[in-house]
Specification:
Strand 1 and strand 2 form a beta hairpin. It is built from 8 helices and 3 strands, in the order αααααβββααα. Strands 2-1-3 form a 3-stranded antiparallel beta sheet. Helix 4 crosses helix 5 and helix 5 runs antiparallel to helix 7. It is mainly α. It has 2 domains: 67 residues, Helix Hairpins, CATH 1.10.287; 100 residues, Iron/manganese superoxide dismutase, C-terminal domain (minor pseudopilin epsh fold, 3-Layer(bab) Sandwich), CATH 3.55.40. The longest helix has 23 residues.
Length: 197
Amino acid sequence: MAFELPPLPYAPDANEPSIDKQTMEIHHGKHHATYVAKLNDAVKGTPFEKKKIEEILRGINDVPQNVRQAVINNGGGHANHTLFWKILGGKGGQPGGKLGDAIKSTFGGLDGLKEKVNNAGVGRFGSGWAWLVKTPDGKLDVTSTANQDSPLMQNQVPILGIDVWEHAYYLKYQNRRPDYLKAVWDVFNWKEIEKNF
């Protein structure tokens, strides 16, 4: 069973003005689609083509060396973007429930979390992601990964991720990554993010 590009759960212009329609169309329809195609090529004819991408990434050292980096790059790209599309399309606001409580106790509230995540995104040299994750011991942490590396490879649960590759923001923000990082919080869907927790 081949991996497939998931449809966007909203219209491409649903995240405007934070993320413009053209960026969403190119990001989803071209970049993510390419990750899916290259992932399928990498695992074709192996037992991995029948596994879920989360399972593959958690056990990345079991993937043969000759295709491991292709699976990290493209499988990570597929998993990371699939999460990213799901957590967008909202109206921002405040996290609730157990996640809201955990953010308050760990970071002092949403403003503290935003500061840490945005700093992780600004501080990521080159391409990568800024993450809110749940660590193996069940605590919240903020981290950053290079390229399309996934927190799943570190046995962490990704709760919220922000793509800081230039293709995620360059058409609207050019080199102003901090402005993009600030704006994306306005379109987070906290109900979806809470499900990840």
